[in-house]
Amino acid sequence: MTLMQVELDDKYRLESKRIFLSGTQALVRLPMLQRERDRLQGLNTGGFISGYRGSPLGMYDHALWRAKSHLQQHDIAFVPGLNEDLAATAVWGSQQVGLFPGAKVDGVFGIWYGKGPGVDRSVDALKHANAAGTSLNGGVLALAGDDHGCQSSTLAHQSEQVFAAALIPVINPATLQDYLDLGLYGFALSRFSGCWVGFKAISETVESSASIYSDPERIQIKLPDDFEMPPGGLNIRWPDPPLDAERRLFGPKMAAVQAFARANQLDRIVLDSKPARLGIVATGKAYLDLRQALADLGITDKDAQDLGLRIYKVAMTWPLEESGAKRFAEGLQDVLVVEEKRGFIEDQLMRILYNIDASRRPTVTGKRDESGAPLLPSEGELTPTIVAGALVARLRKLGHQSPVLEQRLARLEAFDHPVAAATQIKLARTPFFCSGCPHNSSTKVPEGSRAMAGIGCHGMALSVPTRRTDLISHMGAEGVNWIGQSPFTTEQHIFQNLGDGTYTHSGLLALRAASAAGINITYKILYNDAVAMTGGQPAEGAFNVAQIAHQVWAEGVKRLAIVSDDPSKYPQGNYFPQGATIHHRRELDAVQRELRDIKGLTVVIYDQTCAAEKRRRRKRGLYPDPAKRAFINELVCEGCGDCSQASNCVSVQPLETEFGRKRQIDQSNCNKDFSCVEGFCPSFVTVHGGTLKRIKTSSVDSGQLFADLPLPPARELDGPYNILVTGIGGTGVITIGALLGMAAHVDGRGCSALDFTGLSQKNGAVMSHVRIAPRPEDISAVRITTGGADVILGCDMIVSAGPSALSRAERGVTKAYINADLQPTASFVQNPDLDFEMGTMQTVLRDAIGEKNLDIIDATGIAAALMGDSIATNPFMLGFAFQKGAIPLSLEALLRAIEINGAAIEMNKLAFTWGRLAAHDMSRVRSVVQFKSRASAPTKSLDDIIATRAEFLTGYQDKAYADRYRAAVAKVRKAESAASPASTELTEAVAKNLFKLMSYKDEYEVARLYTDGSFARKVSEKFDGDFSLKFHLAPPIFAQRDKTTGHLQKKEFGGWMIHAFRLLAKLKFLRGGALDLFGRTEERRTERRLVEDYLGMIDQRMAGLKAEQIPLLTRLARVPQTIRGFGHVKEANVKLAAAEKSRLEAELENSRFAAAAE
């Protein structure tokens, strides 16, 4: 096959006739096409774009900035708005250019953009601008980013009704091809009618990518010959008395809109029958859902004609063009209107058909049938299965009884119900703060206080129970609801989180309102130096911390505090207002406690750069990347989770070991915030200098390894082929979808890729729906239908085993390649004992996919060991699936797509090839690298468990100490065997928990675990080069206490501590004796008492042990496993364990009395 010659910038080159691009990029290309059409018609026009970002248009400004050179070539200016309504006013201004002398162009075409709430807040500006009109050679498209599924919003959106209220015509494109075609029609309509034109951009379209046709002259626009233009025309003018503008808008402008739509057949019959009985009206995504529903039901175009169907595709949803609608309805018995969200076309259609003679008027159904029963939902999103159900119901109503259709519908609906075991899975991949996110720290509130959330990533604090964060308002009104609450509650104060982007957008007014109302509130302005939620853009105005400080000080704040992770960066002098104080983030709790007691408005500005933006800038060399990494000594680690509590960070991950669950730092994901080091635990060190170790592939004869790697059999396509890629937000899942789409384009095939992200980009579930077909027109809906996946490329097992992914699978048909590595979910941060349910998930996958079609591989373990970075996981998985014959694309096209993508080309190619080799012959991969799965610890026999721990205790103290351990365990084993010969669970529980108590980590033991060679070995396995270590400790004899909490504070100690550790380790013989200075602390006395209490419990409970007592005694024996941590952390856990022990002992006594009574 000859590959298409493709370059990354083809999407913006007008000479490219077929291109692969995303919805966002199509909206960037659109004004260039308009400018080129104007040029070909002899017009000297310019373009102007302004708006405010927000999902699903969250990356539009980013794409415009990246295409700056292309836009400039076409005289298109992009000026982002401070907020949506000001941006709308700016675009209105672009239409006023020709009203006064000095115009340099014949006209300016404009694009305004905004998320659904931005449409709502801009109605005043939109009404005024639309009433004023557009210029003759200008025209305006108003892009409305509607989040129908509420994936990244506080409310689901539907903007058509808002546009209609402003008398703005609305175009609803179905595909990316429509984005270009209908966008050009939209500009022409705007010029002809003098109206702004609404242009709907929903998540499912704007966040998809596809291979489409692009030619400035692809469409032929007709001006109506049945419309008489009034004197003076319909375009903008000045002066323009308001009532004249109103008469023009309601009269000739609306008539011009109808005439234009009629002349260009914006709404058209796309399938007809003779005779036709059932008409179906659909628009936008709903039209694609309809076409997919027909395909899922096995209804071809010929079958549809035999059934008497007529399909009407509506492009302009308001005002609905009347003559076309009447022509469509002629001769029909029944009309089904398929549209997402509230009925909009349906109401217009019923009005249009109302005065038709009843004998010729069809029944119109949509949201409800003729009896008033629900038919299609107004809430949520439509799916092809939902549409299929409504279609079959209407056919049934018309007397078409088809067992085949009923069976197909039942099959489709069955896919929407997950396999039975899937309902048992409690784990879910929910959005959460990035590693090192400032909001991990900034959203904390003092005990006894609560905060209110706002718009932005920090809103995820709503899902973190320990953050005590409630309620949310619309953007820019944060904290104002407290004005209405405060007079009627005994609560005296509230904290309000406010992002810096929101502050600039409109939030300063909320702060001003709070000051004017005199309420007691502390605004926490979270300055992150980027709008991270939508891609890391700078906040408009680019205010720095000092400018914000002076602004809020001028609003009359009573107290202002600046909190930062690096207070030393601020200049000396009058940089901040006089009276402002500067603090390290470690002092945040104390600062907040002080401010909450001050009457009136107080402000904290929390200054720390967005972690994701740091990572982006570091990759581009624009931000310091300290040669420093956090590392955990797993033997010292207690697995208490205090480091997770301190950092709230998902890069602190579980490590299953022989001695239980510990913690490790995911070095690939870590953003070097280092707040985890604040966890009260001596297991943390920081490694300064050096690099992460990876397999030196230069030392591997990869040419020999890969030399005889065969190509998989070529796969021919006779229709769409569907690949579902699943994974975690921020790990490159979307990149894999993009690579597949671009490779299909390079191979000359039609393709689409739909990315479901939204807030999921922040560690949540992400899916990419990739569809590959012989031609672009062979693909209808971009979302893979239920049961329609040919392949699931599961880069994350949790997402892959979830209902959304499995509803796309058909047992025995879908092939699935699943990564066995279990990245912890957000829940792990709060629950250190979280069950990762790997066995259950594997069972679910086997039930849903079938054993023969399922491959589960430790892709992350292998890829990270080979490449030194877990980011190589996804290309490794892609290579694995390709070699298995599951990717219907050429090797050349896939490698070319990696090159076109341009990021880490050689690494991605190599990871892809290692994946191929793993699929072909895993033993060859294992010959190069040894890797260990972190999913579970190896299972050992009871004898091995006892022997390992006895050996450890010998090193801990001496042989006598170990013998005491062995004797106690042997006593339990003998008693349990006598009571129940087949049982060993109690003995195993005692073997593990007595060991835990006896090996308590005092100063001597921590020193030994740093100097016995195991720690040095672990460090050398992870790091290369010249590096040094620093230790983070809180020695009880030397450490100071925090003034607020009373807890000991950790300090950093240099590498010389290793020498101190060596000396200290040799003094272990002092443990528990008269010369043991450390042993005199309350913590050490408690640890020794716990050992003796446990041994006493063994002596007491083993006498006369009965089989029925074993389960409850085992639970009692396991109580010490919850006694974890150091210092105050351990102290709290000891109290919890004591309470649980008392409860279990009471339960034991009750059961003994009950048994005696029997």
UniProtKB/TrEMBL annotation:
InterPro entries named among the record's database cross-references: 2-oxoacid:Fd_oxidoreductase, DUF6537, Pyrv/ketoisovalerate_OxRed_cat, Pyrv_Fd/Flavodoxin_OxRdtase_N, Pyrv_flavodox_OxRed_cen, THDP-binding
Species the sequence originates in: Bradyrhizobium cosmicum
PANTHER family listed in its UniProt record: 2-OXOGLUTARATE OXIDOREDUCTASE SUBUNIT KORB-RELATED (PTHR48084), SUBUNIT OF PYRUVATE:FLAVODOXIN OXIDOREDUCTASE (PTHR48084:SF3)
Domain Pyruvate/ketoisovalerate oxidoreductase catalytic as annotated: residue spans: 729-915
Signal peptide per UniProt: none
Domain DUF6537: 942-1139
Protein name: Indolepyruvate ferredoxin oxidoreductase
Keywords annotated in UniProt: Oxidoreductase
The keyword Oxidoreductase is annotated on this UniProt entry: yes
Record SUPFAM superfamilies: Pyruvate-ferredoxin oxidoreductase, PFOR, domain III (SSF53323), Thiamin diphosphate-binding fold (THDP-binding) (SSF52518)
One GO molecular-function entry: oxidoreductase activity, acting on the aldehyde or oxo group of donors
